[in-house]
Recover the amino acids of this structure.
């Protein structure tokens, strides 16, 4: 492209009438390094534009932004968990109500089978009682087994007994302290006495 | 819009909005803050974004408004309409000659332009965006946009010439 054409394009450019393609031609020309002296003053503009197009956001800041998106995702999960809280809460209360319904007299009226006194024979009741007792005994046995290792805790109690001896040490220390106080007092008295002797001497 | 879609479709505009913010605010840290804020705002509206014809144009509008609010709050655009003052320069004439067509002087001239013109030059001459896109973002008609762009380009040209004359006299 000759300089005459460039001049025409420049005029259009400064009137704001160039197309993107024409502006690309201008940018290429001024960044080519073969710019005649009398057009040099425009080169700064076009290299400035080229340089500014290279700037990019600090990757650390981009990292912060992405982190925030991922936090957003976690919040969605949290909301999901809250949904499960509600769900289990409602399910529990429904079950709770159902047990009442199951046991009550109404249950018989609407035909749901339940624990009614007239329905079972004494033998059946005894059987149920025995089975329940067995099950509870099993559970308590397992629990005692689990408590077994806790017996070790007693050793700690046993080993802490000798620590009582420390109390005796404290007592004797107190006695030593008392005696030291007495000693201090007598030293003080002796000093007073010595002052007297100094006064008396001359 | 899911997180992945957001990362694919919206995140790539980050450099463009960073450059626009930097051109308006002329401060790296502040521009980085704006970019973050813009993305949080876009993120909070991620379900509506699909409705926009151009997410990029929307992101640019949000950026532009946020930056202009910051400028207004700070009130530091006071000297932009004032006369171009060539900076006092104590460097050797040799150095000045070297820096004659340095981009630095264009940068200084750019910062003296009114924000609106600066944004238009940024989008057209730096980003190479279509007139229609810029007009949509700037909420101007095409004619007014061309006039504004022409005025900005001429101002840059005239101030470069003036600066060079000043430096020449300085020699």
């Amino acid at each position: 492209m000759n300089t005459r054409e460039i001049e025409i394009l420049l005029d259009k450019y400064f009137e704001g009438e160039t197309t993107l393609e024409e502006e690309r031609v201008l940018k290429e020309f001024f960044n080519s390094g073969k710019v005649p002296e009398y057009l040099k003053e425009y080169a700064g503009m076009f290299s400035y534009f080229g340089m500014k197009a290279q700037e990019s956001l600090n990757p650390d800041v981009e990292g912060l932004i992405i982190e925030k998106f991922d936090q957003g995702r976690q919040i969605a999960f949290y909301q999901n968990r809250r949904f499960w809280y509600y769900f289990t809460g409602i399910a529990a209360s429904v079950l709770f109500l159902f047990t009442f319904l199951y046991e009550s007299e109404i249950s018989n009226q609407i035909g749901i089978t339940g624990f009614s006194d007239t329905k079972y024979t004494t033998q059946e009741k005894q059987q149920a009682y025995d089975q329940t007792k067995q099950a509870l005994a099993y559970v308590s046995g397992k629990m005692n087994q689990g408590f077994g290792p806790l017996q070790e805790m007693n050793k700690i109690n046993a080993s802490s007994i000798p620590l009582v001896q420390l109390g005796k040490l404290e007592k004797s220390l107190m006695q030593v302290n008392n005696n030291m106080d007495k000693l201090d007092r007598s030293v003080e008295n002796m000093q007073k006495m010595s002052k007297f002797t100094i006064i008396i001497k001359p | 819009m899911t997180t992945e879609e957001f990362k694919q479709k919206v995140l790539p505009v980050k450099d463009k909005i960073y450059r626009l913010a930097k051109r308006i605010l002329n401060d790296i840290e502040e521009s980085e803050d704006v970019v973050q804020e813009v993305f949080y705002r876009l993120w909070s509206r991620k379900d509506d974004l699909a409705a926009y014809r151009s997410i990029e144009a929307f992101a640019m509008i949000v950026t532009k408004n946020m930056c202009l609010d910051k400028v207004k709050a700070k009130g530091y655009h006071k000297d932009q309409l004032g006369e171009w003052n060539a900076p006092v320069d104590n460097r050797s004439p040799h150095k000045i000659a070297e820096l004659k067509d340095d981009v630095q002087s264009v940068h200084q001239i750019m910062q003296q332009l009114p924000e609106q013109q600066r944004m238009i030059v940024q989008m057209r001459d730096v980003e190479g965006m279509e007139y229609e896109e810029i007009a949509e973002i700037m909420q101007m008609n095409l004619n007014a946009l061309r006039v504004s762009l022409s005025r900005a380009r001429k101002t840059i040209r005239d101030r470069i010439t003036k600066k060079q004359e000043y430096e020449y006299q300085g020699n």
Confidence is low (pLDDT under 50) at residues 78-89, 95-100 of chain B. Chain B touches chain A through 44 residues (CB under 8 Å). The radius of gyration of chain B is 19 Å. The longest helix of chain B spans residues 142-170.
